[in-house]
Amino acid sequence: MSKSLTDALDGNAWSVSKVAFDLNDVLDDEGRPISERRADAPVRAGVEMDMRVCPYSGIRNGQWMNMSALAQISNYYNPVMAEIVAFRRRVGGDNATWADILAAVMDQLASPAIQLLQKRDGHGPVSAHVSVGHKLAAGFFGVTRILHERLALGETFPVTADAFLALVDETGALVGTTEVCAGSPQMIRKATSLLVEGGPANDVSLSPSRLDIARCLAQQLQLGLFWRLYDQLHLWELLRGETRQRLVPYSDFLTRKLESAATEFGVKAPAKPDISRLPLTLDSDMRSKLTKALQDVVEQQALQEDMQECLRLLAEPGAAIRYEGDAEPMALQIARYLHTRRLFEAALGKLELQLRELLGFPLDTPISLGTEIFPIPRAMPWYEMVVGRRVGDSGHLTGSTTGVRTQPKSTIK
Question: Which of 161, 177, 206 is the last residue of a domain?
Fold first, then answer.
């Protein structure tokens, strides 16, 4: 059974997003794993996996595709797409935005998790209809996430199937690590057109709570992308920017690790997120706070505690990576980073509480956000080695030491 689902049902730290992306052991009521070949090995045992060579032209040609999954998808394709069309019409009418379309994708992607949570069912199965909706949404999800990351950087895309399919081609989204999408070009275009551009009105009924759950999950994903972009800017500064020139690793191993990590970046700093693209549905107070944090214009009073602790730790010898420079700007840099991370965690946590309320779960159990929604902070481990102290559960530098307490080298690398 999924650990994330077990945690939710047992009252341990959990989140809806964590459950939604942790169902690799769940079957549908036709005996197929909802994750297909990504499912855990025991779940796949005995399940037909008819793998054939892709006959379609393009980058998929000649690679393996899962025809068994396609057969099931074909059986439920029309009712699932009717749901997607109805959802899109309910949230955006004839003028749906990319945010509305993201919500439609999240609605289907999270549907197995929502069904299990609503039933308080730790094992399943889920209905085949729900399973197929999840599989179709999984095909859209990666491209939709990339699109929203680019939107967060200020790019614009017309809300058309052609724009979406162009991004599919650009990113190679139809090709996975072990297999390619088995749908025909006609099926892929039809599904994309219905998702992005909509279809005729139908009589599919959707509950208000279903719409609200999907909107919350979509907004969480959008906020998580802004956090990832902000974190990436700090990571670049540590690995490639002026800060790197003042970092003195304790060992040759750490020097090589820094140099290796830096190879993913170019000399030029990544683009900053466009604050005007923060989700419009975000409440005004949180939007204002995040806007200031993303621009690093936070009031000094909000940073004081972190700054004082950073200054104290930077003055102590023995960190895994010593900072050779003016301590105050570095303390300010770290304090801003920690403050912004706490703000994003708070905003995501507030949305999680809304999700729990919609699903009828207690609000007082601890929150553990999934990494698909709240990406792991990549700059933070380097900052921790610079100050010699880990970030604690409070989001401040209250954790254990990083373990190196001997005098480091003095030559700048």
Answer: 206
Instruction: Classify residue 375 as exposed, middle or buried by CB count within 10 Å of its CB (0-12, 13-18, 19+).
Output: middle
Rounded CA-CA distance 236/245 in Å is: 12
Q: How many domains does the chain have?
A: 2
**pLDDT recorded at residue 318:** 84
pLDDT score recorded for residue 94 = 79
Fill in the amino acid letter for 38. Answer: R
Dihedral sign for Cα 376, 278, 21, 190, please: negative
Are 185 and 236 members of one domain?
no
Instruction: Specify burial of residue 334 (Cβ count, 10 A radius: 0-12, 13-18, 19+).
Output: buried
The pLDDT value recorded for residue 413 is: 45
Whether 407 shows a pLDDT value over 60: the answer reads no
Whether residues 200 and 230 share a domain: the answer is no
Tokens 């199965």 correspond to what residue? 125
Hey, CA dihedral for 322, 327, 329, 330, is it positive or negative? positive
* Pair (314, 379) in one structural domain: yes
Tens of pLDDT, residue by residue over 359-397, are 999 999 999 999 999 999 999 999 999 999 999 999 999
pTM (2 d.p.): 0.94
On average, the pLDDT of the chain sits at: 93
Q: How confident is the model at residue 412 (pLDDT cuts 50, 70, 90)?
A: very low
pLDDT of residue 88: 92
Which structural domain range is residue 39 located in? 3-206
